[in-house]
Amino acid sequence: MVSVEEYETIAEDEPVTDITKNELENWHSLHRPPKQIRSVRFAYNSTTTSSAPPSQIFMSVHQALVLIQKREPSNRLTFTRVPDLYMLNCEYVPVNADDRIEFEIEVCKLWLLKLHGIRVKRLSGNPFVFKDLYHSLVDFMKL
Fold first, then answer.
1. CA-CA distance, 69 to 143, in Å (whole number)?
2. What is the C-alpha to C-alpha distance for residues 131 and 143, in angstroms, rounded to an integer?
C-alpha cells in the first residue's frame, strides 16, 4: 500500500496535463462504438480491406487523417464522425480554395465475406485532387 507521502512525491514527479471538457467529449465521441456496422457492396481491393476488427480499422483511418493534417499544414483537412456508424465526414481545402473536396470514409462489413473494408466516397470537388488525397490516405493506413 502506498503511503500519503509516497503518493505526493509520485504525483509531483509526473507532469499534469489539463484536458478540457471539449477535448474529452471529442475523444469519447470519436472512440465510441457504433450501434451497428453496415454490410454493403462496393468496389474494394486488398489495400482497403482487412480481417481486423472494425474499431481497429477505424483507428487506422483516424491516424491516417491526422498524419495528412500534420504533413500539409497549409491545406485544411477537417473531419467529424457520424454518431451511429463508423463513418467520418471530411472536408479538404487545399491552398487553391477552388478545389474544395467533400468526401466520406466509412468502415463497413463486406457483403458475404468475413472481412471489413473502407469505403471512400467523394461527395463534391475536383476528382483529380480527390484521387491524390485518396492515394495518400491509403498509403498512410496500416491495414
1. 20
2. 19
β-pairing, 49-50 vs 76-82, is: unpaired
DSSP state of 47: G
CB 65 within 8 Å of CB 116? no
103 CA to centre of own chain: 13
Sign, CA dihedral 57-22-82-29, equals positive
Residue written as cell 484521387? 131
C-alpha cell at 23: 477535448
Q: Give the pairing of strands 76-82 and 87-93.
A: antiparallel
pLDDT digits (tens, 9 = 90+) for 90-131: 999 888 767 889 999 999 898 888 889 999 999 999 899 899
